[in-house]
Structure formats: structure tokens, C-alpha cells
Predict the structure.
Amino acid sequence: LAAQASAQKTVADVLARSAQGTFRNLVESAEKMPEADYLYQATKDTRTFAGFVGHTINSAFNNCSRAKGEENPNKEDWEKVTAKPRLVEAAKAVQAYCDAVFAAQTDASLAEMVTAGQNQVPRAQLLIGIISHNMNAYGQKVIVMRLKGVTPPTTERAQQPRKPGAN
């Protein structure tokens, strides 16, 4: 019974699906925004669109590697990169890396303690933090996209006709 309980993935699968959606938004927004607008800032006190994409990539690599219990494989500061092709490629790379981290989880592994800075926290806390951070950063990118007249990917998907029989 103990092995069966540790292999359960009900909550872990919910988190993995949520994370997949946030990483989809990261990649699709990076792909959709014209490169000419990557340096656009809504205000002088906010990041550029490229800066939001890069910041999200940096943060996700950092926290997914912590959740995995290994050194961060990312050695580039993506927040300083402004070239769309490089940022799209990096967004896809962090998506693949983090998808594997989320997919490897079980409900039991979510309760295991991992190092986050100076603290020990449940692995679930790091993973939920990644999801919420991605969502927050996507909201910032949506504002920039709207200011530049670009329809955000989530809005575009919501406007698609539903397939017959789909819920």
C-alpha cells in the first residue's frame, strides 16, 4: 500500500497540466510578438517585452532545477537577450526542461523537502511558485501585446470555434 500511495499522481498531474498551460503561453507569446516590438516597454519602470520573456525563462530554469535537486543547467542571463529567435528557442528549452520535472512528480514527491535559498520547503511550493510566476509574467506580456495591437494567445484560443463534442 505504501508503494501504491507514493506512486499516486492525482495532484502531481494537475500541477503538470497547469504548468504546461503556462509554458505554452510563454512560448506562444514569444512567437507571436513581432520582433520589432521586443524592446517595447509599457512604462519606463517596467521590463521590455523581451525582458519579461527572458525573466520568465531565467526564473523557471532556476526553480525547476531546484525542484529537481540539481544545479541550474542554464548559464545565460536571458533577461539581457533581445533577439526574438534566441528567446523563442530558450522558451521552448525551458518548457521541455520543466515539463520533465513536473512529469516526474508523484503526490508523495510533492511533499518532500527541497532547498530554496536558505530554506527547506515542500517541493510543491516551488512548483506552484513556478506556475504562479509564469501566470503573473504572462499577464505583464499581455498588457504589452495589447498596447502593440497584438492579440494574446489565450484570447486567440478562446475565440476559436469549439469542435463538436468538445467540452
User: Anything to note?
Assistant: The longest strand covers residues 113-116. The chain has a mean pLDDT of 93. The two ends are 35 Å apart (CA to CA). The helical segments are 2-7, 10-32, 49-68, 84-103, 107-110, 123-147, 153-158.
